[in-house]
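The following block was generated as part of the benchmark described in Methods. Ligand: succinic acid.
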Amino acid sequence: MFPPDFNTAAFLRDYWQKKPLLIRGGGAAWRNPLDPDDLAGLAGEDGVEARIVTRTKKTWKLEHGPFKPSRFAKPGKKPWTLLVQAVDHAVPEVAALIEPFRFVPNWRIDDVMVSYATDGGGVGPHFDQYDVFLIQGLGRRRWQVGGRCDATTALLPHDDLRLLAEFTPTDEWVLEPGDMLYVPPGIAHDGVAVGDDCMTYSIGFRAPSRAELVSNWCDHLLDGLGDDDRYADPGLGLQGNPGEIAPDAIARLHAMITETLLDREAFARWFGGYTSAPKNDVDWSSDAPIEPGALREALAGGTALRRNPASRFAFIREGDDVVLFVDGQSFECDGEIAILAERLAATDRLVLDAAAINSDAAIKLISTLVKQGSFGLDLKD
Ligand code: SIN
Ligand code: CO
């Protein structure tokens, strides 16, 4: 992971979204947070996105999970790799890997994919649309990086995998446990396991495409537009040619579009909810929520709030107030609750101070978040 002298500001200035960077860092301090058997177990669960990529002499084969234990009992001799998406949502120790990356805003962070490969295994040369930090967890992997790719880059003919037709590496490194490689979007890369038992943790980021943004923002706007909200021209004047769509009509029509689409405040509020919504519309709410009184008592006793590892927290400012977004829900927060909201969005574990515990508004907010499953109570201390 990051060595103590790692300069985050210099990284953001010189590498983030610009060029790859090898970061040697693990050494003796590194602990692999997940056992390969536990990864295989997760790959067998319904609702967990898992894939196996097998490399044959001529091509690459892709299988989709869930995978039964028997799939791993006789894996075959060809190099293969198992890839499991969003492991941080299920394993708090893997979620903890994200914490050193919080110098990037929460809303830009996606999830942690974990791969396990046998000697020679990998997913083939490719490029991703997103930034990624590839942390070597167990064993060794040779990473090669190449040039920048885009929609015009030639791909191998394959129904399921987007592999590069040509890959010319410009750099290569063998990563040991705890080392990591940062790869910006669009940069060709290929990681091949050197020896068996190779595990890699991909801290993945997200960046909405323009098409996705426009489409979702417009869908949201359409939900709020009624049929009677319509073009009107009570000041209609005489015009020389009835065939003309007159400039003032165009101006009024165009204003109907821009007034709606360009409302920045409404956009910010919509985006907060949109970007913090859980991935698969999951519902973590509890049937037997803790009563506010019992919650206050637990918090006063030093019980910490621990964020659900799959929860997304973000906020926007509106003057001195804050709108907090948690898992697609929004909460208006002013005064001391605004300060609390900022703290809730900043950290994955929090022990509340006396002022917050004594505030009814704070307990109400926390109760709601605990009830919807975004926070759990860490009863350990
Ligand atoms: C891997 O972990 O094998 C693949 C990760 C990547 O290249 O994005
Ligand atoms: Co990749």
